[in-house]
Amino acid sequence: MKSPTLSDYRGQKVKVICEDCDILKSLDGEALFNQYGDADMPGLLGDLCKALGCTRSKEGFYNRCSLVYYFTHDEWMAKSGMVSREAYEIALGKRLADLQEWEMLHGRCRCGRRGPLNKSSLAQRYGPDARLKELERKLLCKECKKYDSVIDISSLPR
After folding, report:
1. Cα 14 versus chain centre, distance
2. Which of 28, 44, 113, 151 could form a disulfide with 109 if both were Cys (CB 3.0 to 4.6 A apart)?
3. Which residues contact 120 (CB under 8 A, 6 or more apart)?
4. Dist CA 57 CA 51 (whole Å)
5. For residue 34, which phi and psi values (nearest 5 degrees)?
6. Beta-carbon neighbour count of residue 48 at 10 Å?
7. What angle do CA 67, 68, 72 make, to 5 degrees?
8. pLDDT, tens digit, for every residue of 122-147?
């Protein structure tokens, strides 16, 4: 697998951290590209270590600089292909059991027809663990006879 180069980070921030030296810097990728050219990212750490004023070197085994590239949790998850639990839950949609008492459901068809939905009858028919996204495909519009509805959640007025 090819190691990343500075050209991959043009226009982005390159973050580095060294916990031993208490260094946390966010560097401009464009400026680094202009200064060092299209260098490999792993090999660039030694030059960045010297530029940031670290007294240790990247060579050797003992007492070496521990400067590494820093990624936020969201960047790391996107890079590794993982999806956060919140994004997963949002993509799946709410369950009927997750709805509060004061939340009302309304079905809205693409033809313009709109009507209230009874949460308890939907829970009896499809189960309390049914997702609202799944129920949208099962709702039949009485006017245009299509299974193409959208479920809206609204709150009762105070």
Report:
1. 19
2. 113
3. none
4. 11
5. -65, -30
6. 22
7. 130
8. 999 999 999 888 888 888 888 888 88
Rounded to two decimals, what is the model's pTM? 0.47
Consecutive H or E run containing 150: strand 149-155
**Rounded CA separation 66/96 (Å):** 50
Q: Are 99 and 118 in contact (CB under 8 A)?
A: no
User: Tell me: the pLDDT tens digits for 98-118?
Assistant: 888 888 999 898 888 898 999
- The pair of three-digit structure tokens given for residue 97, joined into one six-digit string: 């059991």
Structure tokens at 115: 């009507």
The token pair at 122 is 């939907």
Distances, alpha carbon 21 to alpha carbons 14, 17, 44, 51, 52, in Å: 18, 9, 18, 13, 10
Q: How far apart are CA 122 and CA 107, in angstroms?
A: 12
Q: Return the DSSP state at 140.
A: P
**How far, rounded to the nearest angstrom, does the alpha carbon of residue 19 sit from its chain's CA centroid?**
26
Residue 111 phi/psi, 5-degree rounding, is: -80, -10
